[in-house]
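It is worth pausing here to work through a concrete case rather than discussing structure prediction in the abstract. The textbook approach is simple: state the sequence, then state the predicted structure, then interpret. We follow exactly that order.
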Amino acid sequence: MNKNFFFILFLCALKTGFSQNKIDELQEKLREVKSIEQRIQILDSLTKEMVRSNHPDQLKYLKEVVSLSKKEGQYDLAAEKSRFIIQKYSNKGQLDSVLLEIQNILKFKKNFKKISSEAHIVLKRGGYYYNREELDNAVIDYDRSGDLFLKNKDSIFAADARFFAGQVYFDLNDFINSVQRFEEAYNLYDALGDKDYANYTLNELSSLYGTNGFHDKAIYERKRILSNAKAIKNNVAIFNAYSHLFTSYFKKDEIDTAKKYLDSAQITLKKISDENMKSRLETYQLKTQIKYHLRKNELDSSYKYLKIFETQLQLKVKGLKHDKNAYLLYNGRYYKKKNKHSTAQKYYEELLAKENHIGDVDMFINANKEMSEVLAAQNKYNASYKYLKKYTDAKALEDARIKRNKFLYYQSQFETQRKDNEIFKNETEIALLEKDKSIAKAKQKTLWIVIVAILLLSTVISYLIWLKGKLKRKALAMKIEKNKKDLEEFTKQLIEKSKVQESLTQEIEKLKEEIGGKEVIYKIQDLTTTKILTSDDWYIFKEKFTKVHPRFFIKLKDKGYKLTKSEERLLAMEKLYLDTEQIATMLAISNDSVVRSRSRLRKKVNAPKGSSILEYLEAS
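Step two, the predicted structure:
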């Protein structure tokens, strides 16, 4: 593993420890000061550190600094800290506390010296209204905060405000304003070099085009998204692009092309490492699979995915309403295709009971049409006509809306032309963004200096670690080489010793023929039956062998074959690549004995014929 990785981990740990130490130090200072002005200064630094590290006590200190800042007339500081209090309440879903904090700080709006103070609080209030589904109020605040941020040259926050406004206008079915806000947000993100959010904005824009019948434009934008996502290797963005391209081609009835993107999305899903995100995307993938197989009348596959979808919905503590609605619609379609019309009717009835809360116009329109067909199949013509009329009325309204939006869109294109890359900038915004670019370059230059310094330091540390390791490896290699030579020398001595013994044995055999007498014969026999490798010889040999091959006998033992000492000796000789004659000489046995020992060992460990027993054991 790269040594730089460990160095970065060390720096992160050091930073965390440093942050905690700084918090402790500031808290200690806070306990010592009595002056309100000094207390505010320390609280300002302390809350910045706490917010940065998400400290559990941050809310208490944030409230204190807001209270003291108001008393001292430092209203911009109070507004700055209120932002974080509002965010904490919002994260906990305490909307009443969110509104109260917003109202309390906006009482001092006339005392703000910075435009950004009001802009941030108004942006937070837009989020409050959106959570309360008060969309008209939300979009007013988002637009207002965006204008204030642009006036104050805070491009990144202006981009966020425009993006949120685009989402609200989308929910309000205001196509033109939604397109304009998303385009503004995209241009701001793109100019700032924020590729992730620029891509995310394009995704929302392409969905907006698709919902309003601009399928070719939606496909064009989604292919741009896919290209950008691949460039930055963002698997979540790649998955979303493939899934949305499936939807666009599906709506155009180009089913085979749609299937290719569905398969690509499935492959990409497996590459996503974030388990929470992967779980959410798996649900989306399930819905697209069901939709595709129902269209292809592949009912067995549809049923399989429907059961998985049902299990997922049951496991969710708070399932999305849209997931539940899709589940009802797809079940209705499945049983309709199975000609189980009464069962299908129950699913459609449950779905259409939520008529004002479905949140998907196409789903509502199609559910009415399919309900009409199910009732007609059961000869319930009066009820069928009622749903058919709802379908035709809703379809006419939706078609009229799409036509109107298309007309307004093309009209707006004549009024404000987009360039080839669809970037919309007026002269004022260009000047503003150029200034922001110069600031960003200065920051980037500083960042590069820091990065280069870190890389140089990490390179030096890595080199020192490598050099130390090299010296250790060299010393170890020398030690191993010495042990190896010792083993070879000892083995050579044993072989020579064995040869001398063999020669002596031959001479004794001659003497046996020449010299008679029982006592002399017994002494000669005792001498000839003495083994060349005594226990001491084997102990010394094994000790030297283990220095060269330290885990050899441990590994043999781990195989579980319960080898005898003789078998271990034979395998040790094999490890030294000695032939049968050399082994026989060393062990003071015949060549045939070596062959028989080897054969018995091969059977014991089930080694195949024609292969080395040792190689087989080491590979198994």
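Step three, interpretation. Residues 1-18, 410-428, 515-532 have pLDDT under 50 and may be disordered. Residues 189 and 197 are 6 Å apart (CA to CA).
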